[in-house]
Amino acid sequence: MRLVFIAGSPRRKSRTRVLVERARDHARNEHPECETDLLDLAATTPEPFKDWETEYSDATRNVVERVLASDAMVVGSPVFNGSYSSAVKNLFEHIDYKELEGMVAGFIVVGGGDQSFLQVRAHLAQLMAYYRVPVVPRAVFATEEQVDEGPPEKILKRIDRLVDATFAAATGARAAADAERKMEREHAPQA
Q1: Strand, helix or coil for residue 171
Q2: Which of 55, 60, 132, 134 could form a disulfide with 101 if both were Cys (CB 3.0 to 4.6 A apart)?
Q3: For the stretch 7-29, what's the b/e string if a residue is b when 16 or more beta carbons lie within 10 angstroms of its beta carbon?
Q4: Rounded-to-integer distance, Cα 60 and Cα 43, Å
Q5: Sheet containing 72-78: which strands, arranged edge to edge?
Q6: 0.85 exceeded by the pTM?
Q7: What CATH number does residue 36 fall under?
Q8: Element spanning 166, H or E
Q9: CB burial class (10 A; 0-12, 13-18, 19+) of residue 115?
Q10: Domain for residue 142, yes or no?
Q11: Enclosing domain of residue 32
């Protein structure tokens, strides 16, 4: 099982990254059988997407491969103009919608105030629906102030529950996919 934790803020001093790192650390501690990967879009920014014919750099291809190699993802994004960040949007522009089917996603959203959280969660859920990626029902929402002051215990517990729910959903999705492949093999025409 492999989970990728995407810190989707383009800022070097990212509050979103603080919470996404906490999520990754919880996965490492509570699910040691799970391989984790922190993908910080401020440090490893894919080139701007142009089209499918463009040859992108090895660094950009590597970022995309890190997502594709995962069974689930936790996507963290700041609120930018009532939606998720352009860094998150650009990352997913590089991925063919068919390649993520079978993955599971959870969300962490950080905003300047307590408005737009549900709107951003809805935008992320719509993006995942396009990619045929089921979404963990509850997201984690935090304000910049909460992160700056040290996230309160209730936020930390929500992050832990999000990671646990994402891990459980990915485990179930993997089991379902394995069962489906087994049935296909058993019912395949014999030559």
Answers
A1: helix
A2: 132
A3: bbbbeeebbbbbbbbbbbbbbee
A4: 12
A5: 35-40, 2-7, 72-78, 104-111, 140-143
A6: yes
A7: 3.40.50.360
A8: helix 153-186
A9: exposed
A10: yes
A11: 2-186
- Give the pLDDT confidence of 19-57 residue by residue, as tens digits: 999 999 999 999 999 999 999 999 998 999 999 999 999
Q: Which secondary-structure segment (H or E) carries 36? A: strand 35-40
pLDDT at 127 over 70: yes
Contact 40, 125 (CB under 8 A): no
Classify residue 191: in a domain, yes or no: no
- pLDDT for the residue numbered 18: 96
Sign of the four-CA dihedral 157, 28, 87, 124:
negative
Are the C-beta atoms of residues 108 and 162 closer than 8 Å to each other?
yes
| Cα(64)–Cα(70) distance, integer angstroms | 10
How big is the CA angle at 14 (ends 10 and 16), to the nearest 5 degrees?
Answer: 95
Does 93 fall in a domain? Answer: yes
